[in-house]
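User: My collaborator sent over this chain with a note saying "see what the structure looks like." That's all I know about it. Can you take a look?
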Amino acid sequence: MKETEHAVSRSMANYIIREATSRDFKNIISIVEKVFNYYRMDLIAQQEVPDLLDIETHYTRNGTRLFVAEFKDKCLGCSALHMNNGSTEVKRVYVEPEYWDSGLDLSLVNYSVCTAKEYGELCVNHWIDTRFEREQRSFEMLGFVYTGRVRPLFDINKSYEYHYRKTLNGK
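Assistant: Without extra context I'll predict from the sequence alone. Here is the result:
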């Protein structure tokens, strides 16, 4: 998929969304750390986000993609798409906190959803930490619906996640 240009509404800076590479992992982990710190959560990357530590291996598999939003060689956020026999999920949506109100998260998720549509997927799922209220609102703005399902993660942060789902292609 070719790079797509977007505009960050707050600053009107141009950025691109592209496939992530191994050179992005330090920037992505830094963003995840900032998000976890904001919510006063502990991050042990090897347990919480091991796939982001080895982008080349994890995100070169068939049906698994990781996208980053970049401006002037700086990674501002990411979104992953996992497609597996009709069970499609948007994951790893993290954005630099200073860009939370810019619409960048919407662009990243929408990019992942459009990619799923291109592959003929009929619906997309997403699990959102119950503490991530901004992300919940963003997904709802994009047409995702809370299904009522909640799951515990049994992690060091005692996290629970809400399940969201979006039907694609008008079905």
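A starting point for your reply to your collaborator: The helical segments are 25-38, 45-48, 50-53, 55-58, 104-118, 133-141.
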